[in-house]
Design brief:
Distance between the termini: 32 Å
Strand content: 5-15%
Largest sheet: 6 strands, mixed
Helix content: 25-40%
Oligomer: single chain
Number of helices: 30
Number of strands: 15
Strand order of the largest sheet: 1-4-3-9-7-8
Structural class: mainly alpha
Length: about 900
C-alpha cells in the first residue's frame, strides 16, 4: 500500500513514548573496543518551539517499541542533538563512534541499544537493508529528506526536526522514509506516532522490469513502410502516434536504423502536421513541440526541422492575454498559453521543447502550468481559465510535474503535484486513470512513474514500473487499461520510457560515434596530463582547491581526520582520496609525497591504526574495496602495490575474490566474483581496477564478469550497492565505466558507451548531476571523469559540469557538498571536485614523484584540531574549515571500507553519492 494508506493504517494505534529523561553514564574510551557515546541531560520536549531548539525522533518500531522524541534547545550538530536529546549511540569497530550502528533510549527497554549484538556485530558498516538512516525536515517542510550530510556535519536550525529510522534505503534515500510526518513529531506537533512496522516507501509489490526489446519489436511492427503509423481504416498518416513510436524506439534501443527512418519521415511531415493552417500561420503548438522534442532527442536541430524553426515559432506565438482582455486572440484561453495548445499536455510539451532547446520559455507560459494545479495537487488536462472547476488526473499531473521540475523555481507547485501522486497510487503500484477509479491505467501509471522517479520517490516509481511489467502483453505492447488484451501505441510509448528509467525531459538517442577499443594502461609511465584544454573560466580554480586540501588545518601529519570531537582516529579513505586529487593536478607533489610516505611506511594515527588496519589485510574482515583503493594509489604514484604499507595488496585482492555467495549471517560475499566485504559497485570497481592495472587479468576474470553483470541492460547504468537493489547511480556508473574501459573486448566497450550515454542523460540544466546529496558536487566531478573517457563526444556536457563545479567553489578554495542545503567547504567533496575536474580516470592516472621531498611532519601526540564547515575560527585558508566538530562526513565512503560517513549509514550508500570518491571502498 502507498504511504498515505500506511499512515492511515497506523492512525489510532500511535502512541508517543514519553520524552527521554537524563541518563547518567560513564564513558570509557578504548581503541580496542567499540565505545558508546552517552547522552547528556535532555531538554524537555516542550522547551523546543518553532523558533527555539530542534527535535529528534527515533523510531524503535522494528524492535517492538514506538517513536521516542528528544529536544535540544541549543544544538550545534545533528550528532549533538541526538545525544543531548537523551539517546545513546554506539559506533563500529572499523570506523569508531562516528558511524552510528546502535541507538538506545532510557525510556525504551531500559536503554538497550539496537540492533543488539545478536543481530549486528557492529564490526564493519552495517548492510544496506538494516541500518540507522538519517532524515531531516526544515520548518514548514511536510516531507522528509534523506540528509545529504552526516549528523556530525549537519547544523540544525531552530524549528528543525531530525529522524532516525532502522531498516533499508536505496541510493540517496529514495525509499525507507519514516512512517510518520515531520509535523507529527516536530516542536508543538499534534501527532503522537506510535509503534511502526518499519519504514515504507511506495506499495510493497513484487519486483518487475519491462521487456524493452519486446516492446521495441512491437512498436516497429505498428509502422507502415517502416516509416510511420497510419490510420487502419483510411490509411492517413497519424503523426501523433508516429512521434510516440519514435519516442518509444529511442527509449527502448537508443539510436537505431528503425528510429532514423521514422525521424527522417517526420521531417517531411512538418508542414501538414505542425502547420495545418499554412506555414505563414501559427503552428499547432503540440505538434511543433513534439517534433522539436524528437529533434532534441535524436541530436537534430529543432530550429531547422523540416525547414522550420520550431522553437522560434513556438515562442513567437504565445498568448498575450485571454478572453478577459476584451480582445481575445484565437486559440487563447489565458495569458501565457501557446496558441492552439488547448490541453495541458500540449502546453507542457511546448514549455519542455523550449527548455531542452536552450530557449527560456516565457514566464507566463510556465506560470500557466501552475494555474492548472487543482486544490488537491492534481493537474487538470484542459487549459481551463482561472477560476473554472478543476479536476485533475494522474497522467497529466505526472507530465506537468516533470516539466515544472525541469523549469525550476516552481517548488510549491511541484511539491503539491508530488504529494498528490503519492496519495493517488493504488496498493498494486498502479495509478488510476481519473480520480476515484479503483483500477490502473497504463498511461497514468507510466507518466506518474516518470515523475516520481525524477522527484526522488524511487520506491513508488519502482512499484509503478513493476505493475506495468505485469500488464505487458505477450507481443510486447501495452493496452490502455488494466488487464487489456490489445496493444495500443499511445499507452505503450510512455510505458517504455518509464521502464527505461527516462522521460521526455531526459531521453536522448544521439548518433553513436566510433571509438577506439580500450587498452590496458601501463602500470608505470609518464605523469598523466588532463585530456582536454577547457575554455577559460570553464572549471574551478584547482590551485586554490589544492591549497585548501593541503592547508595545515586539513592535512595533518600526512593524513586527514574525520570529524569526531577531537579523537586521534584518521580517515584513511579520505586520505587516499586527497592523494588522488593531488596526483591528478600535480600542484603540490611534495604534499602528495608526504601522504604517500605516511601510508606506505606504516604511519600510525593517534589511535595507533595503520593503512593495514583500515584495509583488513590478513585479518578476518579483508575489505576488498579498501584493498583495491590502496593498491590503485600505489600504482598511481608508481610504487609497488605488492609491497605497499607493508602488504602485498595484489595478492590480498586475489585472496579476497569470492568463489560463491556466503550464507547468512555471514555477509562477506555477495556473489561469485565479488570481493569480500565489498558492498558496492564502487568497491568492486576499485578491486578490479587494481588487479587489471597490475596485469592480473586472469585473476580478475571473475570480478570483471560480476561487475559487468551488474549493469542494467535497458539503461546502461549501474546500481550503487552489492547485491544490487535496482537503483541507478551516476557515481557508480562513472566508476564502473572507468574500470571496464581498462578491459579489452567489444562487449566492455559497448557497455562503457552505453554507460556514458546514460550519465549524459542525467545532467541537470545547470550542469550538475543528481546524487544522494542532491545536486551533488561529488556526482558532477565523477561524471566529468566518466564522460572524459569520450571527451570529444561529450565536450558540451563536460564543460557544463565544470562550470557547475566552479559555481560550488568557496573563497577558501574548498567546495560545498551540493548546490542545495548547508553551505561551507567539505573536505570529502573537495577531494573529488579537485581530482574529478581534471577529467583523468582513476584507471589511467599516474604521477611521478621522482625528485620530490616530503614536507616536514612534526610529531604530535595531541588530538588534531577539528573545525566546522563555515566556521570563522577555522585555521585553514579562507576560514572555511573542512572537518565537522562532532561527526562524520555524510559523503563518504561507501561501505565498509571507506569508512565512516554519515553518522548513521549514509554510508554504504556511499556506493552512492557521498562518495569519498573513489570512495573508500564505497
Amino acid at each position: 500500500m502507498g504511504t498515505a494508506q500506511q499512515r492511515n493504517r497506523h492512525a489510532g494505534k500511535r502512541r508517543l513514548l514519553s520524552s527521554v529523561s537524563a541518563i547518567a553514564l560513564i564513558f570509557a574510551a578504548s581503541v580496542a573496543f567499540v565505545s558508546g557515546a552517552v547522552p547528556a541531560s535532555a531538554d524537555p520536549v516542550g522547551e523546543c518551539t518553532a523558533t527555539r531548539g530542534a527535535v529528534v525522533a527515533v523510531d524503535f518500531g522494528p524492535f517492538g517499541g514506538g517513536v521516542v522524541r528528544g529536544c535540544d534547545t541549543t544544538p550545534t550538530s545533528g550528532y549533538e542533538l541526538l545525544h543531548e536529546g537523551g539517546f545513546t549511540t554506539e559506533g563500529t569497530q572499523h570506523d569508531g563512534d562516528g558511524f552510528i550502528c546502535r541507538i538506545g533510549a532510557g525510556s525504551f527497554n531500559s536503554g538497550t541499544r539496537y540492533p543488539t549484538p545478536a543481530t549486528e556485530d557492529c564490526v564493519l558498516t552495517p548492510q544496506a537493508t538494516a541500518y540507522w538512516s538519517y532524515w531531516i525536515a526544515a520548518p514548514g517542510q511536510e516531507t522528509w529528506s534523506y540528509s545529504p550530510l552526516g549528523a556530525m556535519d549537519r547544523k540544525p536550525k531552530a524549528g528543525d526536526v531530525d529522524a532516525w529510522v532502522f531498516g533499508g534505503t536505496d541510493v540517496g534515500g529514495t525509499t525507507g522514509r519514516p512512517d510518520f510526518t515531520p509535523d507529527e513529531v516536530r516542536a508543538g506537533g499534534g501527532g503522537t506516532p506510535g509503534p511502526t512496522g518499519g519504514p515504507t516507501d511506495g506499495p510493497s509489490v513484487p519486483a518487475g522490469e519491462i521487456d524493452l526489446p519486446a516492446a521495441a519489436r512491437w512498436v516497429t511492427g505498428q509502422l507502415r513502410d517502416d516509416t510511420h503509423v497510419a490510420d487502419p481504416d483510411t490509411g492517413a498518416h497519424d503523426d501523433v502516434l508516429t512521434t510516440e513510436a519514435a519516442y518509444a524506439l529511442a527509449a527502448a534501443g537508443g539510436r537505431s536504423p528503425a528510429l532514423d527512418k521514422v525521424a527522417a519521415h517526420l521531417t517531411t511531415r512538418t508542414g501538414p502536421y505542425a502547420y495545418p493552417n499554412g506555414t505563414d500561420e501559427a503552428p499547432d503548438a503540440p505538434a511543433a513541440a513534439r517534433l522539436a522534442l524528437l529533434a532534441e532527442i535524436t541530436g537534430g536541430d529543432p530550429r531547422a526541422f523540416g525547414g522550420r524553426d520550431l522553437l522560434g515559432d513556438l515562442k513567437e506565438n504565445v498568448c498575450p492575454a485571454g478572453p478577459e482582455s476584451g480582445a481575445p486572440t484565437p486559440g487563447c484561453t489565458a495569458k501565457g498559453d501557446f496558441r492552439g495548445a488547448q490541453y495541458a499536455d500540449g502546453q507542457a510539451l511546448s514549455v519542455l521543447a523550449l527548455l531542452r532547446g536552450g530557449v527560456e520559455p516565457p514566464a507566463a507560459s510556465t506560470a500557466r502550468l501552475t494555474q492548472l494545479v487543482c486544490q488537491d495537487g492534481s493537474v487538470t488536462s484542459i487549459l481551463i481559465t482561472p477560476g473554472e472547476n478543476c479536476d485533475g488526473d494522474p497522467a497529466t499531473t505526472g507530465l506537468v510535474a516533470l516539466v515544472l521540475d525541469e523549469a525550476g523555481g516552481q517548488d510549491t507547485a511541484v511539491a503539491r503535484t508530488r504529494a498528490y501522486l503519492r496519495k493517488a497510487q493504488l496498493e498494486t503500484g498502479a495509478f488510476p486513470g481519473y480520480n476515484g477509479a479503483t483500477t490502473g491505467s497504463i498511461t497514468a501509471t507510466a507518466y506518474a512513474a516518470q515523475a516520481l522517479r525524477a522527484l526522488g520517490d524511487g520506491g513508488a516509481a519502482d512499484a509503478a514500473v513493476s505493475w506495468l511489467s505485469r500488464q505487458q502483453l505477450d507481443d510486447g505492447g501495452f493496452g490502455f487499461e488494466e488487464s487489456a488484451t490489445d496493444g495500443a501505441l499511445y499507452p505503450t510509448a510512455p510505458a517504455v520510457l518509464a521502464g527505461a528509467d527516462t522521460s521526455l525531459v531526459t531521453l536522448t538517442a544521439k548518433p553513436v560515434e566510433p571509438t577506439l577499443p580500450p587498452t590496458t594502461p601501463p602500470t608505470t609511465g609518464p605523469t598523466t596530463a588532463p585530456p582536454t584544454t577547457r575554455p577559460p573560466g570553464a572549471g574551478p580554480d584547482l590551485k586554490k582547491g589544492v591549497a585548501y586540501l593541503t592547508a595545515p588545518a586539513n592535512l595533518q601529519q600526512g593524513r586527514y581526520y574525520a570529524a569526531g570531537g577531537g579523537t586521534g582516529r584518521a580517515d584513511f579513505g579520505l586520505t587516499v582520496d586527497g592523494a588522488f586529487a593531488l596526483a591528478a593536478t600535480g600542484h603540490d607533489d611534495n604534499a602528495l609525497r608526504t601522504v604517500v610516505d605516511f601510508l606506505d611506511d606504516g604511519g600510525k594515527d593517534g589511535e595507533g591504526r595503520t593503512l593495514g588496519d583500515w584495509t583488513g589485510v590478513g585479518g578476518a574482515h579483508a575489505l576488498g574495496g579498501s584493498i583495491g583503493k590502496a593498491a590503485v594509489l600505489a600504482q598511481v604514484v608508481e610504487r609497488d602495490p605488492r609491497a605497499f604499507g607493508g602488504q602485498d595488496l595484489i595478492a590480498a585482492l586475489a585472496d579476497a575474490v569470492c568463489t560463491k555467495p556466503s550464507t547468512a549471517p555471514d555477509r562477506s560475499c555477495a556473489a561469485r566474483g565479488a570481493y569480500t566485504y565489498a558492498p558496492s559497485v564502487f568497491a568492486q570497481s576499485l578491486g578490479v581496477m587494481a588487479q587489471v592495472r597490475a596485469g592480473e587479468e586472469s585473476a580478475a576474470k571473475a570480478p570483471v564478469a560480476y561487475l559487468a553483470s551488474l549493469q542494467h541492460a535497458s539503461s546502461g547504468a549501474w546500481p550503487s550497492l552489492v547485491p544490487p537493489t535496482g537503483d541507478a547511480d551516476v557515481d557508480s556508473t562513472a566508476m564502473a565505466a572507468m574500470t571496464l574501459d581498462l578491459v579489452p573486448g567489444e562487449a566492455h566497450e559497448a557497455a562503457v558507451d552505453k554507460a556514458l550515454a546514460w550519465i549524459a542523460s542525467r545532467q541537470l540544466k545547470d550542469g550538475g548531476f543528481p546524487g544522494a546529496a542532491g545536486n551533488s558536487v561529488n556526482t558532477a566531478a565523477l561524471a566529468v571523469q566518466g564522460l572524459s573517457l569520450d571527451g570529444e563526444k561529450y565536450e558540451k556536457q563536460i564543460t557544463k559540469a565544470l562550470r557547475f563545479l566552479a559555481s560550488q567553489q568557496n573563497p577558501d578554495g574548498g567546495f560545498n557538498v551540493a548546490k542545495e542545503g548547508q553551505r561551507g567547504s567539505d573536505l570529502r567533496a573537495s577531494t573529488q571536485a579537485v581530482g574529478g575536474a581534471t577529467g583523468i580516470s582513476f584507471g589511467t592516472l599516474t604521477r611521478d614523484l621522482t625528485g620530490t621531498t616530503p614536507n616536514p611532519v612534526p610529531p604530535s601526540t595531541a588530538p588534531p584540531r577539528i573545525v566546522t564547515p563555515g566556521d570563522s575560527s577555522a585555521v585553514g585558508p579562507g576560514g572555511g574549515g573542512g572537518l565537522a566538530s562532532t561527526g562524520v562526513r555524510a559523503l563518504g565512503l561507501a561501505a565498509a571500507a571507506a569508512g565512516l560517513v554519515l553518522v548513521g549509514w549514509r554510508t554504504v550508500v556511499a556506493a552512492r553519492a557521498r562518495r569519498t570518491v573513489p570512495g573508500g571502498a564505497r
